[in-house]
Amino acid sequence: MAVAFAGTMNAQDVKFGVKLGMNVSSVNEKGPNSLDSKNGFVFGVTSEFSLTEKISLQPELLFSQHGARSKDDFTLDLNYFTMPIMVKYYVVDGFSIEAGPQFSFLVKDEILDGAQVTDVTAESFDLMASLGLGYQFKNSLFFQTRYNLGLIDTNISENFNVKNGVFQMTLGYQF
To answer: What is the 3-state secondary structure (H, E, C) of the chain?
Structure first.
């Protein structure tokens, strides 16, 4: 069925692009120590496949900086290669609501405390639920904002369940 569907699509139904932006990330922990949010970058490539006039599928491959910061100046860095697969519904011309899973593969996990760097043994995979809004301008620029909620414990704490939470704003260009 997928092969038959792919055969019915033409070049006009597929767009490719690049995007970059900012993350405001935190870890949602159920414990006594609260951590503050941390800013980071996100960038990568996108594609968008039109399924109907109002619905499209947008897979992406991104590098994304997650983590958190403590009031005592230590920073938790969790960097991922992420693969969101967003289903987009165009409410009106250009404006979309998007939702889907995000598969995240850990590439860096450490705690920075002043000049000292400590390795962390975080879970190498994270599955996130993503929900967002987007606007596609007529000149091929697009803006997206989404929230990514971690569904898997990162295993950075033996005593508490710690999950990622990332608010993301990006600007991109489709060609």
So the answer is: CHHHHHHHCCHHHEEEEEEEEEEEEEEEECCCCCCECEEEEEEEEEEEEECCCCEEEEEEEEEEEEEEECCCCEEEEEEEEEEEEEEEEEEECCEEEEEEEEEEEEEEEEEEECCEEEECCCCCEEEEEEEEEEEECCCCEEEEEEEEEECCCCCCCCCCCEEEEEEEEEEEEEC
- Is residue 175, in this structure, part of any structural domain at all? no
**This prediction's pTM:** 0.87
Residues 62-80 as b or e (16 or more Cβ within 10 Å = b): bebbbbbbeeeeeebbbbb
For 8, the domain range is: 2-167
What is the domain count for the chain? 1
CATH classification of the domain holding 51:
2.40.160.20
53-87 tens-digit pLDDT? 999 999 999 999 999 998 777 888 999 999 999 99
Is residue 16 within 8 A of residue 152, CB to CB? The reply is: no
Whether residue 124 lies inside any domain: the answer is: yes
